[in-house]
Amino acid sequence: MTFTVSVKDSEIAFDCGPQQNVLDAAERAGWAIPYSCRKGVCDSCVGTLVAGTFQVPGRGKVSGPAEVRLCHAHPKSDVEIAPKRVEQRTPPVRKRLTTTVHRRRQVAPGVTILDLRYPIGRRTPFRAGQFLNIILDDGDTRSYSLANPPQYNDLAQLHVRHEPGGVFSARILQQLEFHDTVEIEAPFGEFFVDDRSEAPITLLATGTGFAPMRSIILDHAARRLTRPIHLYWGARTLDDLYLLDTVETWTKRYPWLRFTPVLSRPHPGWEGATGHVQDVLIADHTDLHTHQIYACGSEAMTNSAADALARERGVNPERFHADAFVSAAGAPAAV
Ligand SMILES: Cc1cc2nc3c(=O)[nH]c(=O)nc-3n(C[C@H](O)[C@H](O)[C@H](O)COP(=O)(O)OP(=O)(O)OC[C@H]3O[C@@H](n4cnc5c(N)ncnc54)[C@H](O)[C@@H]3O)c2cc1C
Ligand code: FES
Q: Domain containing 135: what range?
């Protein structure tokens, strides 16, 4: 049995089985709805159930009107929904691959860069900014942004923050040796630069939120684009900006790139920006309404940036894109 999901105030309608979630069904039908974690944690996919009934894990049957996470919404009847955004898109081609560890290096006290090689002859096309899922032995997944540019798609470079008690980052990662295997599925994500626009691009990153920014900047360079990019990268201390030298080299090479490092716990003598990246961005600009802003890293930063930029600089939510690095283990709240 399948139900019909229709989108309010549009001609859009697609089928969805009772075991499927609306996000997956929309994607298969060629419609992209914003998402990030796909685990009911981040709220990127929250939309309105206008009419009809969903089965929602942790909430039981929910009838419209109600707010729901569309990645966790399974129809119990025909439904009408109003997502934040919906765009026509060719359904993504995802691959599940057994990769091998090429290199693992700790680059800061709490950060490891992990290079994974795909099997010979296998490539995974993706867009700069997207992420992959590591598949653990029990089938659970962990999301990591691809830090390599799409021009190098026979490998995956991951920038992994060590989470205390984390199954992957604190245990599995620390034991990985050269040539060990890691199961992955890629690509996922709606976090990539809107190529239809010529607007200046602002990248806001905290910690390992730099990973997708690396991919975006190297992709920009490889495609010889000249649209201005300004990267704000925030961390507690200078050591936490684990590829600072690399970014400074890029700023000398690429005239379209500006870089503002931001420290929240600066050492004595630091003359750069201090505080939170979103506050420094706001202080730097009286008007940001023409910018496209991409934010990646801690959920506290992405949420605070979304609110502050809309409130204080009139940034239209359509121009603000974020991947919050929520924990896979975080318990979903009540939405
Ligand atoms: C789209 C996306 C992209 C991401 N990209 C990156 C990236 O490039 N780099 C990066 O470093 N991170 C990234 N993340 C975040 C990363 O996926 C999570 O931090 C992930 O949970 C880490 O996995 P882990 O196995 O190390 O830790 P987990 O086992 O998931 O544990 C994470 C934390 O939660 C705690 N915890 C465990 N169980 C529970 C529980 N039941 N309730 C509450 N807390 C619990 C643990 O103690 C630990 O501190 C991304 C997340 C998303 C959604
Ligand atoms: S994508 Fe649905 S809550 Fe994160």
A: 95-188
